[in-house]
Amino acid sequence: MSLTESSAADIAKTASFASRHLATLSNAARNDALTALHRALLDNQDSILAANARDVETASRAAKNGNLNQSILKRLDLSRPGKYADMLQGILNVRDLDDPVGKVTLKTLLDDGLVLERVSCPIGVLLIIFEARPEVIANIAALSIKSGNAAILKGGKESTESFVAISEVISEAISNTQVPRSSIQLVKTRDVVSSLLAQDSLIDLAIPRGSNDLVRYVKDNTKIPVLGHADGLCCAYLHFDANPDIAVKVIVDSKTDYPAACNALETLLVHEDALKTAFPRVAEALLSRGVSLRCDMPSKAALVESLPASQADLLLDATDSDYDTEFLDLTLAVKTISSTHSPDSAAEVAIEHINIHSSKHTNIVITGSKEIAERFMNSVDSAGVFWNASTRFADGMRYGFGTEVGISTNKIHTRGPVGLDGLTIYKYLIRGNGHGAGDYFEGEGGKKWKHEKLSL
Amino acid sequence: MSLTESSAADIAKTASFASRHLATLSNAARNDALTALHRALLDNQDSILAANARDVETASRAAKNGNLNQSILKRLDLSRPGKYADMLQGILNVRDLDDPVGKVTLKTLLDDGLVLERVSCPIGVLLIIFEARPEVIANIAALSIKSGNAAILKGGKESTESFVAISEVISEAISNTQVPRSSIQLVKTRDVVSSLLAQDSLIDLAIPRGSNDLVRYVKDNTKIPVLGHADGLCCAYLHFDANPDIAVKVIVDSKTDYPAACNALETLLVHEDALKTAFPRVAEALLSRGVSLRCDMPSKAALVESLPASQADLLLDATDSDYDTEFLDLTLAVKTISSTHSPDSAAEVAIEHINIHSSKHTNIVITGSKEIAERFMNSVDSAGVFWNASTRFADGMRYGFGTEVGISTNKIHTRGPVGLDGLTIYKYLIRGNGHGAGDYFEGEGGKKWKHEKLSL
């Protein structure tokens, strides 16, 4: 075993041990740790912001030399107005959420004196790997402690100074509470990550937060279950009967509110009968906000006819691969959906396109028809399916979950924005009085099951 | 791409397509398919049993030559009294369970006219790989259809004839219903399995049912999430205050009711103060039922003192590896837990042993103390934790879930016996009226979230 491997095994073992103690703490004890965490981050704001300023300075130089993306620089900066306060408030918000642990979700009388309960409990050990955003450390630490999980955190290299400063404050703060200090461990070197990804017997869940490449790297290099999304290819289907005001509002917000987000719109499917009704107004609004439209032939033809030449000249031709591309930018692929058989058959074509090409993150329909909307919501296979509402609503805070751990496009465990519930599992408890299972059988002398649902 | 790979891709694509249609069907339509399935298996009982008899004959020859385990032969035989009737009844039981699809589990008013719902839905495509038991085909087909999932099934080679016969009846039966015929696909050749395990973009969940080796093979060879358990190393902790009658009843049932089952007891931890009270009676009862006891020194010494020589002579010495062994046979490892500091500290030692050595399947405590029991149930990390009740209760039928898909020792998604709920996930639906997310922000002019919980 190399030094890195043995270090990864030690980290994972310590975390596993801490997780078992943490799992037995009361909500009050976990909340006390969050209060201490909040206090300490408030008290140490100046030194943390000073450390962050050093990261920002290094990153600014890299950005000037073209070695770093401007958006990373922006995400890195904790001194932006309101950001530190939001981070602090986030900890209190998590603290004040309902306890996700110890919820009894099923209770059955199996037989006299033999009661089955299903009770929520922490998952165990989380491995969270994230990129630049330094406030994620506080956020994730709060969510982990509140849900009774131990967490191993690895941040991006651009935020090293901020990360070290925040992590020291966190360790110090929780060491004065009942939460074991090693419940939150911070890994500083990159080379330990691949060894940690090999600890699948001790680490229960990996959560990569960052670029598609990071998520793919994690998914491809571990047997630990991975929670997250590699892609956010979201689609909208504009039905022929859509109210143009609603269409403009929803599509412009979906595309332009934050184009780099995973829940931003990337593909617009337009019913052919909407090409000359709602669509030109939508296109005009998008073009006037600087969105490049990559159109197929019918949609381009319709716009060339209805838009002024100054705008029509901006239109681009779509290629097939555009419908499989997450642009993360002010670019939108447009595809026309023909309705050969009936106006409604187009909805089926749109649904099929989405089920094949979208990343099952968030997809929306804009229509005046409740029937079409319900069919769309029933048939589209994705974490979020919305009717006449922006894709950008797919977010834990907006859903009312408090802070979110991330957004999952997994088909098991937890899907969509992941709040505290996504960090819990359950166990089955039976309380008996000397019951053996062999006494229950059909026929003479066999005991019978009661299987009576008890109120929770 | 080889022929096998293209065939696996075709099977997975067809299943994915079928799953999307299946997901939109009503409970009544899915139930109609189960009724048809039941009817067809009843009508074709003779030909299916004839096919099964051919499998049994081949297997009997192999068993005689020492090339097949007797327990496989036993599991293979569908003509054993009640087995076929149980299989048929199982289909009706699944049909009559509550619909697991379309359950609204969260409803929130985000803002006026903007409502969020979380609704249960099928996972999509299941790949189920199982060994000899032919009745599993009917069982899994019923569970898949009821939960709205498409399933690809691969059975063991010993049950090929039974499997082909049942599969033809199933395909024929559902082809006359609204459930797409390719919702249940049956794979006959073994070489296609590894190619199917590579279809992680189309197959959503793999469920291996059978030996530890099978489960490990599947886990090691796919990126598809795997639901199941490789091991069933279950432990019991006998506290010093245990009622001897309860101890005998629970431990004998746990060990001897069905030793080859994953929920059979493998390790008994005995508080040192129980060595001369409850333990000798437990040991006597086990020995008289032919159980080999592999004892550590203190437990052996206690038994040598209290048991007649004829029984004491049967005792074996435990090695360290016995505490990590799933015997699946009439063998039990016994370990003494000393209580150096206080009687209660032994419970902590037992809990730590279990958290390290058990397979997190089912672990039990036998004690008269509610406090010790609750601490044990709170601290032991496993799918099932029971107080004064046999490990053998860990079973979907016994829990009242109807038929089970298997037992999961995963830490995410679903844990313990998996019923229909384990085959569903959910999606978030939003119904709006032209809402954009960019309108919601702190400060002047920003809309405010309502986040009002609505009744379900």
Mind explaining what this structure looks like?
- Two copies of one chain form a homodimer.
- With 456 residues, the first copy, chain A, is α/β, with parallel strands linked by helices.
- Chain A folds into two domains: 3-220, Aldehyde Dehydrogenase, Chain A, domain 1 (3-Layer(aba) Sandwich), CATH 3.40.605.10; 234-395, Aldehyde Dehydrogenase, Chain A, domain 2.
- In chain A, 41% of the residues lie in helices and 20% in strands.
- Chain A contains 16 helices and 17 strands.
- In chain A, strands 10-9-11-8-7-12-13 form a seven-stranded parallel β-sheet, with helices on both faces. In chain A, strands 16-2-1-17 form a four-stranded antiparallel β-sheet, with no helix packed on it.
- In chain A, a hairpin with a 7-residue loop joins strand 14 (406-408) and strand 15.
- In chain A, helix 2 (27-43) packs antiparallel against helix 6 and helix 10 runs parallel beside helix 11.
- The radius of gyration of chain A is 26 Å and the shape is globular.
- The interface between A and B is large, with 79 and 79 residues.
- Strand 13 (384-389) of chain A pairs parallel with strand 16 (424-435) of chain B, so a sheet runs across the interface.
